[in-house]
Amino acid sequence: MEIKDIKDPKFLKKYNNSQLEELCCDIRTFLLDNISKTGGHLASNLGAVELTVALHYVFNSPYDKFIFDVGHQSYTHKILTGRASSFNTLRQFGGISGYQKREESLHDPFEAGHTSTSIAAALGFAYTRDLNKEKNDVIAIIGDGALTGGLAFEALNNIENINSKIIIVLNDNTMSISKNVGGLSEFLGKIRTSNSYIYAKDKYKTTLEKTNIGTKIYNLSSKIKEKFKKKINDNIFTNLDIDYLGPIDGHDIKQLINAFKKAKSSKKSILIHVITKKGKGYLPAEENSSAWHGVGNFDLESGSIKKANLTSISEVVSNTVYEFMQKDKDLITITPAMITGSKLEKIFKDFPNRSIDTGITESFATTLACSISINKKKVFLPIYSSFLQRAYDNINHDIARMNAHVVIGIDRAGLVGEDGDTHHGIFDISFLNSIPNIVICMGKDNEEIRNLLYTGFYKQSNPFCIRYERANLKYEKTKFKEIKVGTWEYLQKYDNCKKTIISYGTDVSKIYDIYKGKKVNIINARYIKPIDKNILKELIATKQKIYIYETSIKTNSLGTNILEYFNYKEATNKIKLTGIDNSYVKHGKVDLLKKEVKLDLDYITDDINEYFGFKKN
């Protein structure tokens, strides 16, 4: 069958193992060909091909529910459920998502873009299934990296309590995005070489049931059973009353089918431990799966990934922190599994005793940072904006309430593009704005970003949040100088001019480039919190007409901070806010998304010109 002709997974039932293996090869070829053109999550999907084919062979989606943790490894699932013909639109504006999406297909029962949610979600599906007296299976497919997340542990702990059978497929490739860390990773490493608990338990049962007295012992003596379990293969899953099967080869169709059939016939919740290779079938991705986790378009034959000539802002930030760490022995860097994403490789290589990767644990990383900080150390904590919301309580309750000197790097702030609504960094200003003690800032260029970091570490002691977008800049080492907290600057100022544009980040630089030399004041509001009340008083006194350009959510934004202050002062200035309305933004290239939400520079320029009465060029 042609891959693009697949309508649903029913055809798999007629295939033998050899045909299934051939199909897996075809799917890998299809994935490589398409992702090389569109970009996407490559290595994780190449590693999950046989696993997904075997699941669809044994189970019956959408009657049985497949819940992929994060969902970025669900490409084979999308192919088998009739979406292969749309793969040329993968992650493109108006095309199919790189994650499970309920609106796309009945085969996608749940959505995610962040890790560690699948087991909790599966329990919810199983619980309602049992209430409705239905018989379908619910399968959570979770990676070993995602299993380190606190939510996954909470869900595992509640399986016995909720008492609704689920099947957990642990896709163990020894990786999340970067190399896994921590006790669970060590534990899985040991269990990969151990005998299966299920095998041992079956032997135990078979041996005892040969005699009547043995049967009675098996049925009645839980103490003997527990002691026996501990002697055989005691592990975290069996201790939580979850049956364990594995480890098995995740690229062996026959083994996978047999394991899934056992899981299907099991009366209680079971975890199947599957060993896979991230990037399977494509040598460049196998050899460096971190670099091939999420890629743009690439040359399929050479395996070369197209790189920008400029430096990513993440790297500008990490390079600057590296400079500080060279001289400052009290500076610590902590990341929740984002060494590669936040460009921290050099820091971790050269300062191994002062850099900590906590795994996928934003909440833990945040409270750990707080604790280290109040013990007289400086801490740099870079977290993607969309992941930072998972640590909201820890930022509020721990860091801010105790006024700990932690510099939080809010990476991927703003619209991020093809990963879509689960990854856009548009909410951080809104949810941080109401928290006391916190400073929020955003630099317009390489020099200002470096100076803000210098200020955050060495010229103030509050929790200091510096936002930076997914973009590139020319990186240069510059001399450091303080940018006093809560101060803005005029990039352009005219006497007797009553028209003012306020913005921040690289957006204000773009506005300046457009309106340089035109009679309009341009203010760089580099501190979003606290605001510069001296400049605002000046704007009130001179009765400025104000246009505020932001590309994050409007609610609780810089603009609303300014409006609140003007209202308090009973000012009569006319003010126009921009920003994203209270809604989620879909996936696609950033320039197209900005057009969709009317925040692209063409629209904004026309809007500013109309607002201020400027003539069109």
Account of the 3D structure:
The protein is α/β, with parallel strands linked by helices and 617 residues long. It is built from 25 helices and 23 strands. Strands 12-11-13-14-16-15-21 form a 7-stranded mixed sheet, with helices on both faces. The chain has a 5-stranded parallel sheet with strand order 2-3-4-6-5, sandwiched between helices. α20 links the parallel β15 and β16. The longest helix is centred in the N-terminal third of the chain and has 22 residues, at 17-38. It is globular and about 95 Å long. The N and C termini lie far apart (57 Å).
Task: Give a concise summary.
The chain has 617 residues and is of the alpha/beta class. Helix content is 41%, strand content 15%.
Question: What's the total helix number?
Answer: 25
Number of strands: 23
Residue share in β-strands = 15-25%
Rounded to the nearest angstrom, the distance between the terminal CA atoms is: 57 Å
Strand order of the largest sheet: 12-11-13-14-16-15-21
The chain-level structural class is alpha/beta
Please summarize the sheet with the most strands: 7 strands, mixed
Unreliable stretches covering 5 or more consecutive residues:
191-199, 228-232
Question: What characteristic shape results from the CA principal axes?
Answer: globular
Helix content: 40-55%
